[in-house]
Specification:
- The protein has about 500 residues and is α/β, with parallel strands linked by helices.
- The protein folds into three domains: about 180 residues, Ribosomal Protein S5, domain 2 (2-Layer Sandwich), CATH 3.30.230; about 240 residues, P-loop containing nucleotide triphosphate hydrolases (Rossmann fold, 3-Layer(aba) Sandwich); about 70 residues, no CATH class.
- About 35% of the residues lie in helices and about 15% in strands.
- Strand 1 and strand 2 form a beta hairpin.
- The longest helix is centred in the last third of the chain and has 19 residues.
Amino acid sequence: MSLAIVHSRAKVGVEAPVVTVEAHLANGLPALTLVGLPEAAVKESKDRVRSAILNAGFDFPARRITLNLAPADLPKDGGRFDVAIALGILAASGQLPAVALENVEFLGELALSGAIRPVQGVLPAALAARAAGRALVVPVANAEEACLASGLTVIAVEHLLQVVAHFAGRTVMEPYIASGLLQVSKPYPDLSDVQGQQSAKRALLVAAAGSHNLLFTGPPGTGKTLLASRLPGLLPPLDEQEALEVAAIQSVASHEPLSSWPQRPFRQPHHSASGPALVGGGSRPQPGEITLAHHGVLFLDELPEFDRKVLEVLREPMESGFIVIARARDRMRFPARFQLVAAMNPCPCGFLGEPTGRCRCTPEQIQRYRNKLSGPLLDRIDLHLTVARETTSLNPLAQSGDNTATAAASVALARGRQVQRQGCANAFLDLPGVRRHCQLTAVDNTWLENACERMTLSLRAAHRLLKVARTLADLEGAGSIERRHLAEALQYRPVSG
């Protein structure tokens, strides 16, 4: 047979569209033509494939070979199609039965010796192959990752000879069985490491319970970063769908095979990060920090030190939970349902308001420092808290009575109430959801309206305040929002104007 068809998967953002490798052998001078919008790494595959076939002991046909990667308008990059191309040539030349390849997809980069190397983005390809009802052949290093798509038949291979022997029926390889190495949970930092800071821990608990954004303001050394790093441990465990989404993003973004079953991600980009680094981009759009923090925490330390234009790009994904990156040739949508935690100093030197009087910043310097953050961005942060300096304790064994396990249990109960009532965390309630689930008595409604007028809060801030009050009620197990919940929620809002 001079025509063979083999299936593979491309990597486009966090998706894995199917690519059909068509190999055709015709009479004429020996040549190999590769078409289908291949980029540099794919064009070079014909040299890798030729050497791999010859070094594995097979014949490379001395005929005119045409390889088509369909669909033709989809750009292809990387070495992920090498195995599919090699099998297409072998099947078209009669060295392998083409019918055996019909319901299987192949991923892997070939070494010149015929060894098969791991590739990026295997998990999205595995999920897509499962949906298509096909088995998946992957490098051994990617097998555990592919097995996260439960119900998928995964065949792990190390060399081109193994693949050919299996599909030629000479040596049958059993489907790969996951060892569970990726599902070993790593311990989170414990909240008991933070000494004092009871009000900050309370705000952290509220943020975790309702998935609210949080801003810590305080002088250097008060534990703002330490507190923020404890938030992932307070959040409920990822469900299966969320875990697969997080793992798929890590699979696409990392150059190494997935090393562990993902927990809530905690991303901490440096304040020198550019806009594309934060939200994603490039000539071929790649995920940014907000996508890598999907279903987890994005921590921005020294918030005013970020470029203002960079921070402004966060406003839309903070509301929508995704980011759309448009280029002349591509338009990609990346998930970005992250929880923002930020930290900043009260002034350029960081010591404003301290009783020692160390601050020497002028009012103009302080105002210029704070003006680096726009009102609309601050309006989208539900909880604002000033973190004061605690009494110094140098005892390395000193721990507070609060711990992550106890706090996480309270958060889980509150989240459970929210999911049962409305199907999502309070922070993600839309306007109809706020009206339905954050109802107040007439007296409390009037009281809140007067308070918002005195504090000159926007309607967005008022709605977010109601969501925080709903979370406070859920932490107590209260069926409705009461005045004390509103009063505490107001304490977390800065006065506008």
